[in-house]
Design goal:
The complex is a heterodimer of chains A (158) and B (262). Chain A is mainly alpha-helical. Chain A has a two-stranded antiparallel sheet with strand order 1-2. Chain A contains 7 helices and 2 strands; from the N terminus they run H-E-H-E-H-H-H-H-H. In chain A, 39% of the residues lie in helices and 4% in strands. Chain A has 2 domains: 3-44, no CATH class; 62-156, no CATH class. Chain B has 262 residues and is an alpha+beta fold. Chain B has a domain at 142-192: Alpha-Beta Plaits (2-Layer Sandwich), CATH 3.30.70. Helix content of chain B is 26%, strand content 20%. Chain B is built from 8 helices and 12 strands. A 3-stranded mixed β-sheet of chain B has the order 11-1-12, covered by helices on one side. Chain B has a 3-stranded antiparallel β-sheet with strand order 3-2-6, with no helix packed on it. Chain B has a two-stranded antiparallel ribbon with strand order 4-5. In chain B, strand 7 and strand 8 form a beta hairpin. The chains are: A mainly alpha (158), B alpha+beta (262). Chains A and B meet through helix 2, strand 2, helix 3 and helix 7 of A and helix 3, strand 6, strand 7, helix 6 and helix 7 of B.
Chain lengths: 158, 262
């Protein structure tokens, strides 16, 4: 074969070699076919551990708060609000009490209206929850001014 | 020349070939696939169960998910969201999900988009309910198939994950997902999706949305554990999945799903 055919061919082969050589360093060592086969499992294995190591923010276990905040825990557990998790209003515990020292509380009207805005939806649990019209029921005032969210019945009014 | 021997040979081969192609084109049989899932070696297969009757649309799940998974709170993207469906007497269906339901549903007006709202009278409602949505962690995830670089994949326990260090941001997976659960993370600019709070379920905790739900509308379980309450419901009660016709074998099961739910 003629030289003008060979020379570009060598260049192409060289380029392929370079790409393969770079690939050797760029592609992580644990990259490969996982348990789910080539179609669904082609990945870097250590990526699974990366996700497992992601930081947990919410504890969502009543036991986490119970020991130190036993008084509040006992009150709310006797009320219909027992189903609401502490962290839904008090925010994620993270590593509380070491970090952060104090949690912020969501006392906004909107927080209460999430459930207590009346929606008459016959095929949803929502219609079973008592609601108030926020435009008529003391507008502009925080609900917690009068109501105790840990003791939401009228007996718990402040 | 055709002898008796090679005629028989050809006939045998032909029959075998026909049988093979019939098997190759056979439609997916759910029972068989379920058996396949149950029989493979991994001990865990994470699945999700949503009871739409219990959901009241408070949106605590969306709020908790965004915080737990570090999705910018005010960006209009979320890994999980709650949809509201309202059907009226004239057969029309209205659906909305303002901010993904992050702040709950604190108006009876349905957002129609572009600042338009629809006020529906109580008397006109025939049925109305909320449907929480999240990644279906499909058994045959179409988002994984299309990834050109192997950045998204299915972990051995069935959860579909995204490798942020490897994603090139081409967006194929976002287009391929029939459920629209994927989006670009506003900070990392890589594909983002619900991963059943992989960091939590692997520590024996529930996902943030399950933990946040006051009404038990959301449940997570292991399909390979026959004693798991979620598995018991899926096996023994009437449940359905979203967009079954896509053949992706979604693993988020719903109680009380209606045909209006897309």
């Amino acid at each position: 074969m003629k030289n003008h055919v060979f020379r570009p061919l060598i260049v192409v082969i060289g380029l392929v070699m370079i790409v393969l050589f770079i690939r050797l360093f760029v592609v992580p060592k644990d990259f490969g076919v996982g348990e789910r086969g080539y179609m669904y499992g082609w990945h870097r294995k250590s990526s699974e551990d990366d996700w497992k190591a992601f930081k947990v923010k919410y504890q969502f276990s009543p036991d986490y708060c119970k020991d130190c905040h036993s008084a509040n825990y006992d009150t709310i557990m006797k009320s219909p609000h027992a189903v609401i998790k502490c962290e839904n209003c008090h925010g994620p515990a993270l590593d509380h009490p070491s970090d952060p020292l104090k949690l912020s509380v969501d006392k906004s009207r909107e927080q209460c209206l999430r459930c207590h805005f009346p929606l008459p939806y016959p095929t949803s649990g929502r219609s079973a929850i008592r609601g108030v019209d926020p435009e008529k029921h003391n507008p502009g005032v925080e609900c917690v001014m009068c109501h105790n969210p840990h003791k939401p019945g009228l007996g718990g009014m402040k | 020349m055709i002898t008796r021997r090679n005629l028989l040979e050809i006939a045998l081969k032909g029959t075998a070939g026909l049988a093979l192609s019939a098997a190759a084109f056979e439609l997916a049989d759910p029972k068989k696939l379920f058996a396949d899932i149950m029989s493979d070696k991994a001990k865990v297969r994470w699945v999700f169960l949503v009871d739409t009757y219990k959901c009241v649309g408070c949106g605590f799940c969306v709020k908790a998910c965004k915080t737990e998974n570090e999705i910018p709170y005010d960006a209009n993207v979320t890994r999980t969201w709650v949809e509201r469906y309202v059907q009226t007497k004239d057969g029309k269906v209205f659906a909305d999900t303002p901010k993904g339901g992050r702040d709950g549903f604190i108006t009876e007006k349905i957002a129609l988009g572009s600042g338009q709202f629809k006020d529906i009278k109580k008397e006109d409602i025939t049925k109305a309910f909320f449907v929480p949505k999240l990644c279906n962690q499909c058994e045959n995830p179409s988002c994984v198939q299309v990834c050109p670089v192997g950045a998204t994949y299915q972990a051995p326990d069935g959860v579909v994950l995204v490798d942020r260090t490897w994603c090139i941001g081409c967006g194929y997976c976002i287009m391929a997902c029939p459920y629209g659960v994927r989006f670009f993370h506003p900070k990392y600019h890589t594909a983002e999706k619900c991963n059943f709070c992989y960091h939590r379920i692997n520590k024996g905790m529930k996902t943030a949305c399950v933990g946040a739900c006051p009404f038990g509308a959301r449940m997570i379980g292991n399909l390979k554990n026959p004693d798991d309450p979620v598995t018991k419901v899926i096996m023994n009660e009437r449940v359905s999945v979203l967009k079954e016709e896509f053949g992706t074998k979604p693993q988020v099961y719903y109680i009380g799903l209606d045909k209006e739910v897309k």
